[in-house]
Amino acid sequence: GKGKKEDIQRRIDQLKDQIDDTTSDYEKEKLQERLARLASGVAVLKVGGSSEIEVNEKKDRVTDALNATRAAVEEGIVPGGGTALLRCIPPLDSIKCYNRDQEIGVEIVRKALRVPCMTIAKNAGVDGSVVVAKVEDQKEDYGYDAMNNEYVKMFDKGIIDPTKVVRTAMTDASGVASLLTTAEAVITEVPKEESAGAAGMGGMGGMAGMGGMGGMGM
């Protein structure tokens, strides 16, 4: 940190080039650590708790946050809460389909892009279809804040997702979907029906789960 600024910047540029060129995840991680020391400094996070379970839970949250931050630094951010996916729907109208199968495929993608926002709304206890329709009618980063049950500018509220996370999720989902279309059979697990008593307790768990939606918003 005490070297000449020109030399430090030159070294930073070299590290960035090395990160782009390497194919090793391990080497990329080490190079990013060296880059952080030169460009942004290094911070130490101390995680504590009243029990080992609590400490591990907090460590997992910190790890998730760090990974999300790294992804955001790499490729930027988009509006969270499923808003970015809803903004991908209008361009689908420009796709020219040559047969019925292609039309069905486009419609499947259209429905899939609505699911994240709709699910977040349902988990918040509101009508997901109404929320999706209202967000679709708007533009840019206007979306639904499930925590406060209001429609807001997502960037202003800090409700964001790393672009890399959203892009990777879409790429992986489309890959699996394409694979399933060529499969002769699919093995799945049939969910067990819960009794009335168990279902009631599950509702309490759902309430607790709402607190985690802020993480999704990032």
TrEMBL record:
Q: Does the record bear 4Fe-4S in its keywords? A: no
A GO MF annotation of the entry reads: ATP binding
Coiled-coil spans in chain: 5-32
Q: Tell me where the transmembrane regions lie.
A: none
One Pfam family here: Cpn60_TCP1
- Asked if Nucleotide-binding is a keyword of the record, the answer is yes
Q: Which PROSITE patterns match?
A: CHAPERONINS_CPN60
Give the matching SUPFAM superfamilies. GroEL apical domain-like, GroEL equatorial domain-like
Q: Name one GO biological process term.
A: protein refolding
Hey, which family's this protein in? Belongs to the chaperonin (HSP60) family.
Query: What is the name attached to this protein's record?
Result: Mitochondrial heat shock protein 60 kDa
Give the organism the record lists: Paroster macrosturtensis
